[in-house]
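Exercise 7. Predict the structure of Peptide/nickel transport system substrate-binding protein from Paraburkholderia unamae.
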Amino acid sequence: MTVQARVRAIAAGAVAAASLFGAGEAPANTLTGAFDTGPAGAPQQFNPLTATAGYSWFNKYFGTLVLYNAEMTKIEGDLASDWNVSPDGKTITFHLRKGVKWQDGQPFTAKDVKFTLDLLKNPDLPNQFWARLADIQSVAVPDDNTVVLTLGKPNLALVDALTNVMIVPEHALASIPVKDLRTAAWWKTQPVGTGPFKWGKYVPDQYVELDANPGYYRGRPHIDALINRYFKDDGAAVLALQSGDIQYSYMSLAQVRNTKAERFRTIAGPSRVVNYVGVNFSDPRFKDLRVRQALLMAIDRAGLIKNLYAGQAQVANCVLTEPQYVPSNLKPYAYDPAAAKRLLDEAGWSKFAGQPIELLTYYTDPVSRNAMAVIQAMFAAVGVNVQPRFVDAPTYGELVRAGKFAMTFAGTTNGPDPDVLSSVLMSQYAPPRGYNLMRVNMPELDKLFDEGRAATDTAKRASVYQDVCRYTNANLPWLPVLEANRFAGVSTQVQDFVWTPAPGGGRYMDHPERWSVK
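Solution. The predicted structure, encoded as tokens:
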């Protein structure tokens, strides 16, 4: 960016700030960020029970029973001080922190936890959690500080699922019919949580302001206000970061490479999202394994990573990328167009040759657009005619849930706990019931996920999920392409800031009560 362009950006930022806050309106000790930009954001979605992303922001004013540490290697207590699992794995008992209060002054109790979990299991409130919470048979509250979950079968992965479940107040929501809760005005007018910040104000299409919660159980935050600015696109957010108008934003690889970091520093890390080419298993063209193998071998994944992702990614050979679940000697599916052509010939692809196949994706950043063009050319070289189509995430969701697609380029969370994939790969969760959007129906894979959930020994669980990796490598329910790094930019004026590129945002302790601005 030229000096003149930077001056224009700074001026634009000043104008934008003036339009958002009148003179003297913004709290003096404020951190402003674009918390909902990028793939982990959920701009202007305020119900944490039905959202599928945006948890990083929800965690600022709601609390969860448990959360991962910042490295996402260990689950720690949040609203729960500790928990234990019975020897048979069928009972999980949570002991809650004492003295925690809702931001309206009401006491937080075990009844609020039961209320939240019952909501998530209620069919009148469709959500992404019900599949992972399905093994809960009952929720008991023997006293105000104890929650006992009784399971139909052992499921150690349940604790991982709870790292994304924001606990909501019974006293504030019980009077609202469950069927009306999804879009209730309460979520964006007067929400009450237990987090370090409490609701301040919401100006549609502009920003949300949270104010420091003086009663937060870990202590009052160092900053007085946390503001989430909305931007039309990531590029506008990065310009605001560069000008100093905001102090935090997600950044794409292209932005990291093309933006001069003068006022901010960049943070990077593995996304824990496996990017894959998905095929509609209801489409007869993709039922033959040889077709799926050929498509994967037609993609020069190493070349994509080197030339488009600047080495900021790694090849994925199964649906899992966490090292402890990826065994050696997987089939590499190395780039081999000649072998791909042979496999297609053997599978009788000639009867489909020339037919246009729509390649649907919600990734619209420059790197992804270039990747789609390269994949299109690579498929064409082996006789498969795909046409990329770029849509926004809501449109993508509507199309794939309705089965109106043939092929996709998508990304899905695959860790830290591998059971997170059960709800998107097990046959019982195909639409309209769940999120197995590719309509995968592989009974052996279903059995492996069931076995992994039931395993109560850590080593046994690792072994089972290595088998999941081997099976998906051999049978290709998805065509795994890569796991890319993700990036964020944070102002050099901000201290003690923690950011981890967690799928969907959130799920980890970032301790915003410790953040400060020089």
